[in-house]
Amino acid sequence: MSAIRLLVLGAVRQHGRAHGYQVRNDLEFWGAHEWSNAKPGSIYHALKQLAKQDLLVAHEVAPSTVGGPPRVEYEITDKGTEEYLALLRQALTSYDQKMDMLSAGIGFMVDLPRDEAVALLRERVARLGQWRGSVTEYYTPEDGPEQLGHIGEIMNMWLHSADSEAAWTNSLIERIDSGAYVFAGEGDPFVGVLAEGEPNPFATGPAPGDLR
Q: Can you tell me the distance from the alpha carbon of 127 to that of 139, in angstroms, rounded to the nearest whole number?
């Protein structure tokens, strides 16, 4: 499962309608270019592919103020919204994925109702526990990694990772249960996008396709 699809769909959805540079600017503002494959080329490619798949609709608008061809603005479709929410739910529950997918899911979790977000995160904790249980059927952490030679360090690393992920997820659940953040249907959401023309302190500079 690719994080770039979730990131691009979510960024367009937050704006309502956005051109490629706005999407790229938002993702860089979130630092997504550091922890995912949200590089300029990948973003513009994803926008075009999602439009071909009818998940986004492309609108040609007037040329930019700096000249050049007409910009294309993208708007999420009903089909795109369904895909976005499906990817988001999967990102919050799956344990066997890259960290970029979970990171994207956490970034958009407030688009869900609070109770649903908590339920999905609890499902993730349960899945981590099930995976840990399957490993410890033949590997006993208390006996130390030496029982399998240095190869045991691999299992040791994954078990420690699962334990730390479960602990962090439980702490997040506690914060959400305590009323942290504004979730869907609760009022004005946190504004996590840049306004048109607002400078981005984390921008990486111009790239091919920025005016599309």
A: 18
DSSP state of 190: P
- For residue 75, the SS3 value is strand
SS3 letters for 47-114? HHHHHHCCCEEEEEEEECCCCCCEEEEEEECHHHHHHHHHHHHHHHHCCCCCHHHHHHHHHHHHHCCH
* Span 139-198, pLDDT tens digits: 676 666 566 678 778 778 888 888 999 999 999 999 999 999 999 999 887 766 666 666
Following CA atoms 29, 111, 127, 123 in sequence, which dihedral angle do they give, to the nearest 10 degrees?
A: 150
Of 75, 48, 21, 61, residue with least CA distance to 197: 21
Please enumerate in sequence order all residues whose Cβ is within 8 A of that of 78, keeping only pairs 6 or more positions apart, or say none: none
Radius of gyration from C-alpha coordinates of the chain: 20
Measured distance CA(151)–CA(156) in Å, rounded = 9
pLDDT under 70: residue ranges of the chain: 1, 62-69, 138-139, 141-148, 191-212
Identify the CA nearest to 89 among candidates 109, 68, 67: 109
State both tokens at 27: 């993702």
Closest listed residue to residue 45, CA positions, set 18, 24, 68: 24
Structure tokens belonging to residue 69: 């061809």
Written as one letter, the residue type at 65 is T
Q: Which two tokens stand for residue 75?
A: 């708007």
